[in-house]
Specification:
The protein has about 230 residues and is α+β, with helices and mostly antiparallel strands. It folds into two domains: about 80 residues, TIM Barrel, CATH 3.20.20; about 120 residues, Lyase, Ornithine Decarboxylase, Chain A, domain 1, CATH 2.40.37.10. The chain contains five helices and twelve strands. It has a five-stranded antiparallel sheet with strand order 4-7-10-9-8, with no helix packed on it. Strands 3-11-12 form a three-stranded antiparallel sheet. It is elongated. The mean pLDDT is about 95.
């Protein structure tokens, strides 16, 4: 007796449970080199659904998240579960080109809270991991790993201010980060700093930022603190 048969027999003994849906999740839908694995998962899911439909004819079936939706039409069933695709971001940069473009909709921004002129040789941040190689103008941004900016971006990566890339200096702290704005023109308190998004002719994407941090773009996007103020345009 299969697991599905055992489940159905058990459910028949529990009439108080109303079965409304059945779903699965693909293990390798983002892997173009292993499409056969996902196709087998679809076939197995169809077998399970056929068995369940005999007892539950109104069952809602779903299997495809973003990658399954984009690349496996036979996995649509009754609905699909678009997740990262709603951000306008591909599930994996290695996936085959699409017949249409996905446009990122998320921008992540903060402001400059402080500007300082410091001399060559000054050390920056916790553990003094950065040392200025020249007289510099630095800006403090009130954002850090509490907000979802990976600490792994300490001394790497950059934000955009005035359309210029401003390198991160020193440790990413819990609620602030320091960046070098020496080459970004006239910077003042209240200016906008872009962590993800477009500023003039420069853009930082979620996959680029997560790649620098050594994490997946899924992790980066889902770890953005839900208490951050959001604006829907």
């Amino acid at each position: 007796m299969s697991d599905v048969d055992r489940l159905i027999l058990r459910l028949r003994d529990l009439p108080q449970i109303e079965v409304q849906g059945v779903y699965t999740h693909f293990a390798a839908a983002t892997d173009n080199r292993n499409r056969s694995y996902t196709e087998k998962q679809v076939d197995r899911f169809n077998i399970v659904c056929d068995r369940l439909l005999a007892d539950y004819p109104q069952l809602t079936k779903h299997a495809a998240a973003t990658a399954g939706t984009l690349y496996y039409p036979k996995a649509y069933f009754d609905m699909v579960r678009i997740g990262i695709g709603l951000f306008g971001v591909k599930p994996s940069p290695d996936l085959q080109p699409l017949a249409f473009n996905l446009w990122p909709i998320l921008s992540w921004r903060t402001i400059v809270s402080e500007v300082k002129n410091l001399s060559k040789g000054v050390k920056i941040g916790y553990d003094l991991t950065a040392e200025l190689k020249r007289d510099s103008t630095i800006a403090v941004l009130p954002i850090g790993y509490w907000h979802g900016l990976p600490r792994a971006l300490s001394n790497k990566g950059a934000v955009l201010i005035n359309g210029r890339q401003c390198p991160v200096l020193g440790r990413v702290c819990m609620n602030m980060v320091t960046v070098d704005v020496t080459d970004a023109g006239d910077i003042k308190v209240g200016d906008v700093a872009t962590l993800i998004g477009k500023d003039e002719n420069n853009t930082v994407t979620a996959p680029e930022l997560s790649g620098l941090a050594g994490v997946s773009h899924y992790e980066l996007l889902t770890r953005l603190n839900p208490l951050i103020q959001r604006y829907y345009i």
